Amino acid sequence: MAISVVQWTTGNVGRESVKAIAANPGLELVGCYAWSPGKVGIDAGELAGIGPLGVVATDDVDALLGLKPDCVVYNPQWPSVDELARILGAGVNVVSTAAFINGHRLGAARDRLVDACERGGSSLMGTGVSPGFAEVVALTVAGICSRIDRVTVKEQADTSFYDSPATERPVGFGQPIDTPGLDDMAREGTAVFGEAVAMVADALGVELDEIVCEAEFAQTTADVEMASWTIPAGCVAGVSASWQGRVGDRTVVELSVRWKKGSTLEPDWVIEKDGWQIEVTGLPTVTTSLDFLPPPDFEAETIEDFMAIGHIITAVPALNAVPAVVAAAPGIVTYPDLGMPMPRGWVPVP
Ligand SMILES: NC(=O)c1ccc[n+]([C@@H]2O[C@H](COP(=O)([O-])OP(=O)(O)OC[C@H]3O[C@@H](n4cnc5c(N)ncnc54)[C@H](OP(=O)(O)O)[C@@H]3O)[C@@H](O)[C@H]2O)c1
């Protein structure tokens, strides 16, 4: 029997999630939450750009929880602990792409989520492509090593066509290069990678002494125009953050991101190919990369259409985790708890 899911918001990732749920016989879309008032009353399929699915978006949370879905697929721009606690406390499992891996950094708010899981007998899991799936690849690759000195995942991307000032300004983009506290902004804005460092260490069975973040910035020497905003010359158009899990003074896990916009950066960061470089240093040292390409039949007329690939690879790891999260014991669960999620239901059946 298909697992019933409610889709929470239909933004970039959420729209691809709706399309993927509709295509997967193992999942049944039974409800859709709309954050934007203008989306209330519109069919989720139409919001996703496909035909109607017979599921109308609503902002009535009680009505959605009253459907008793097996799982909420949670893709809002920002996670809300109140909202998550309400869903979990009502006995509904959650898979999230919204800035959550294990809640390591949330302090007392994490305890609220754990309490809600216990009250509702539900589970919460956070993933995405990065952090999330890229770490699963790294851990899989590490599975042939008899000694592991360090696990490194480096994400790099030219994000000129990713137009999300609401999520990019908080990590430092667009700020004058001499803004005090830029490091703190990048640390705060990428903190979910610190959670992923803890997850990888857990999977390796390593107790870390500390998790640190080192940030770097590049300014643009000319205005960078994007679809909805402009980064003026002299402001940040490149952000790097390296999250490191250390034992003593030795880095055992490093998860880093390097994002740039435009071609007028100073210093001039060269990004030859968007994607992830993965290296497990040890016996043996193993390297691999995670690259993605659209298939030949992919219909894309605009750059925005191509951007959908990035949203698909964010949405699908969460969907693949749904069966294991629904079956899991109550609480916050991560990949090391769940075993390897299987990519079921994606082979098209004529
Ligand atoms: N781990 C990963 O690999 C990865 C990669 C990319 C993105 N992400 C995360 O996935 C989530 C979704 O990303 P996205 O690009 O799809 O986001 P988005 O399109 O910017 O926003 C998603 C939806 O959030 C709702 N929303 C808008 N403003 C909000 C606010 N101030 N507070 C709460 N909700 C608001 C809207 O819902 P309605 O549609 O209902 O109006 C919007 O469509 C984000 O948390 C993002 O950081 C994770």
Can you walk through the features of this model?
By secondary structure, this protein is an alpha/beta fold. The protein has helices at residues 12-23, 44-48, 61-66, 81-89, 108-120, 133-141, 165-168, 182-189, 191-204, 303-327, 335-338, and strands at 3-8, 27-33, 57-58, 71-74, 93-96, 123-126, 147-158, 210-220, 224-225, 230-231, 236-247, 250-260, 265-266, 275-283, 286-290, 331-332. It has 2 domains: 3-129 and 311-338, Rossmann fold (3-Layer(aba) Sandwich), CATH 3.40.50; 146-283, no CATH class. The longest helix is centred in the last third of the chain and has 25 residues, at 303-327. The two termini are 20 Å apart. The chain contains 11 helices and 16 strands. The strands form 3 sheets. It has a 7-stranded parallel sheet, with helices on both faces. The structure holds NADP nicotinamide-adenine-dinucleotide phosphate (NAP). NADP nicotinamide-adenine-dinucleotide phosphate (NAP) binds next to helix 1.
Which characteristics define this entry?
single chain, 350 residues, alpha/beta, Rossmann fold, 2 domains, 7-stranded parallel beta sheet, binds NADP nicotinamide-adenine-dinucleotide phosphate
Cα Rg:
20 Å
Number of DSSP helical runs: 11
**What's the main sheet like?**
7 strands, parallel
Mean pLDDT: 96
> What strand line-up does the widest sheet have?
3-2-1-4-5-6-16
SSE order: EHEHEHEHEHEHEHHHEEEEEEEEHEH
**Ends apart, CA distance between termini:** 20 Å
The CATH class name of the largest domain reads Alpha Beta
Named once each, the bound ligands are: NADP nicotinamide-adenine-dinucleotide phosphate
CATH architectural grouping of the largest domain: 3-Layer(aba) Sandwich
Bulk shape: globular
Looking at the structure, the CATH topology of the largest domain is Rossmann fold
In CATH, what is the homologous superfamily of the largest domain?
NAD(P)-binding Rossmann-like Domain
What proportion of the residues is helical, as a percent range?
A: 25-40%
| Strand percentage | 25-35%
Number of domains: 2
Instruction: Detail the poorly predicted runs.
Output: none
Please give the number of β-strands: 16
Q: Based on helices, strands and strand pairing, what is the structural class?
A: alpha/beta
